[in-house]
Prior knowledge:
By secondary structure, this protein is of the alpha+beta class. The protein has helices at 10-17, 34-47, 88-91, 120-138, 154-160, 183-186, 199-212, 216-232, 279-295, 298-305, 378-402, and strands spanning 4-7, 21-29, 54-58, 61-65, 73-77, 96-103, 106-114, 187-188, 191-196, 240-246, 264-269, 320-328, 339-350, 358-363, 366-373.
Amino acid sequence: MEHIYRRLxxxxxxxxxxxxxxAMTLLVRGPLxxxxxxxxxxxxxxxxxxxxxxxxxxxxxxxxxxxGQRQQLFVTDGDPDAPLNAAELARxxxxxxxxxxxxxxxxxxxxxxxxxxxxxxxxxSLLAQLWSLYGDATAGRALIPAPQPFPEPVETLLxxxxxxxxxxxxxxxxxxxxxxxDPEAKFVAPHLASAALTVAETDALLALAARQEVxxxxxxxxxxxxxxxxxxxxxLHELLYVFMVDLRARLNPPLAPMDxxxxxxxxxxMPAADVAAELVPLARAVNEHLRVSLEYGVVQQTPLHxxxxxxxxxxxxxxxxxxxxxxxxxxxxxxxxxxxxxxxxLGSLSARGRRxxxxxxxxxxxxxxxxxxxxxxxxxAQHRVDTVIGTLRAAVESAPMSVGQ
Length: 405
């Protein structure tokens, strides 16, 4: 009889309905030892049952079930710079796997997840664990990762902290969305346009944020909105900006990155008509909106209502701007024998698509803005991220003249 760990919560089932996978990839150069990587993946899956699980159909929805012993490391020769389609997981009926694409002494090492398994912070913690174990294996040390219990869904963790869903219960039982998944035909990887500040420019932007008493995320959010106004011709006060918020540190008691599967809320901000179309004032407005939304518990409610919200890919809203900010990618212990060239975050979804979402990250001291897209021309996509970075760069270059404002 199949062993069932637990039912998927509504906040997790939405990623089954949207067929959503994502990949965190390191581009490396040097002597990558596949046997050490295999040992690290095996140790991780042995310590964390969820990594080796599969999603099973049950009578009234979906459940995490034991997946048994299966291959979860895949190595091929090819172009390390080509987008890695995280839907490879669907082809192998996996929720977690590591895919390596090699060419000479370069390789792309892609840790891939079904999104019900992890959000960005949890994914980064798993990535750090993978490379730490790889380092242990290359050094001949024993691989003994701490056991990881099956993580609780956000609904349970919020309820334990007194956050209950507002509004009346659904008048009728929620119907689970069933999909006939054809991975070979339906899954596509987006193209990725990216632009970055230098390390010195990133440091200067952080200094500007500190002087102006705004957050780095506020400045980047303002730059995104100003770029969207410039590129799309939509007035600033008509844009709707939706951005992800990690709730872990904002709950009482707080949560560690590995404590749950997806502990993200989101904030929705529409600039007031009297907000100046300038970087710092707009950043302040974004920060203040987030502060108030958290104070009144609005952001904390959003994951509890996610299953009742329309799929963003189906929304005909040209004024909608979405962003997820991973923050600073941690230094990865265990990669010392390799030259790490870059970190790439990339999602893969069904051909039903998904509205493009800006991705922001800081890796090796450089702030980057990515635009994963399906329909834009390469030139248009690159111009979009160049415009965002250009706005931030201009603010840094003019910062000495604005000190004391």
